[in-house]
Every structure is written in structure tokens, then in C-alpha cells.
Specification:
By secondary structure, the chain is mainly α. The protein contains 5 helices and no strands.
């Protein structure tokens, strides 16, 4: 027998990882789409505008602040937009691994919110990000500079909201 006391059993199971820290979207039990019919917050609109204007760093700062401030599962929508933006930023800075990984995780996070959420055409964003990722993978690390920048995703808003379509 040992003189060391046995650790006490916890009375309640402890949550080891919060849903939004996992590398997957929140499950349906968390109702991630519960707030999709709400109008987009100003920070999301600003982040989308910055993304579409290719103001990468500013967009990332805006979306990250929005993501960190939001306690509800809708924050994963913001994180997905953020990750796609980070993937584009990595492409523009010649980081093959960062571009491919972040584009994929962004699509993964966004998948729970397709086809649209908060007036964002999520399914279209996922398709655009996946198309860009396929082009990056096909080019490989050595051909990263040759990837057509016209493939960079444009975040579209629903036509029903009266928003102007993005200019390209």
C-alpha cells in the first residue's frame, strides 16, 4: 500500500474543450443557425467590406475582434469568415501551408451556416474558398505566385437585403 492518497473523483464531468475551440463547427444541438435571421452586426459588415476591398490586415483585425467579443455559437460564423480571410492573406504573402490550411478550416467552420446566415451567402463563400484552395494545391508551393488572384473569394450578401453587389 502506498501512503499517497488517491485523487478524488470529480462530482461533475468537466468540459475539457469548448465547442468553439474545436476544429469543427458547432453541432446541431448548439443551434448554430439560431441567429441567422438577424441582421448582420456592424463589425461583420465592416469586415466583409474590408475583405472585398482586399484590405486583408484590417479585415482580419475587425473580424477577430467581433469573434472574440461574441459568446454565442454564431461566433463560429465570424471565425469561418476570419479563417478564409487568413487563408487569402497567407496566399498573398507566399505561405502555401497557411493558405491551404486556413481556407479549409474556414470552410469547415462555415459549413454549419450554409446556405446563408446574417445576409451572408455562406454557401457561395465556401464554394469560392474551395475553388481557390484547389487552385493553390494544383499549383503547389513552387507555383503559388501563379495562382490567379481573381479566384480570391468575394463575400456576397443576400440580394433580399438591399445590399449592393460587390464590385470586382
Amino acid at each position: 500500500m502506498s501512503d499517497t492518497p488517491e485523487p478524488a473523483e470529480p462530482s461533475e464531468p468537466q468540459e475539457s474543450v469548448r465547442y468553439y475551440n474545436q476544429r469543427k463547427p458547432p453541432g446541431p444541438e448548439l443551434r448554430p443557425r439560431a441567429r441567422c435571421a438577424e441582421p448582420p452586426p456592424a463589425g461583420l459588415l465592416r469586415g466583409i467590406e474590408q475583405c472585398n476591398l482586399r484590405e486583408s490586415f484590417e479585415a482580419l483585425e475587425t473580424l477577430e475582434a467581433l469573434w472574440h467579443a461574441e459568446p454565442d455559437p454564431i461566433r463560429v460564423l465570424y471565425k469561418g469568415n476570419l479563417q478564409v480571410g487568413v487563408g487569402c492573406y497567407h496566399l498573398l504573402n507566399g505561405n502555401y501551408r497557411g493558405a491551404t490550411l486556413k481556407l479549409q478550416t474556414g470552410c469547415d467552420y462555415l459549413s454549419a451556416f450554409a446556405p446563408r446566415c446574417m445576409d451572408v451567402e455562406v454557401a457561395a463563400l465556401i464554394a469560392d474558398a474551395q475553388r481557390l484552395r484547389v487552385a493553390i494545391v494544383a499549383a503547389g508551393p513552387a507555383g503559388l505566385r501563379e495562382v490567379d488572384r481573381a479566384l480570391l473569394p468575394v463575400v456576397r450578401r443576400s440580394a433580399s437585403n438591399g445590399a449592393k453587389p460587390p464590385t470586382e
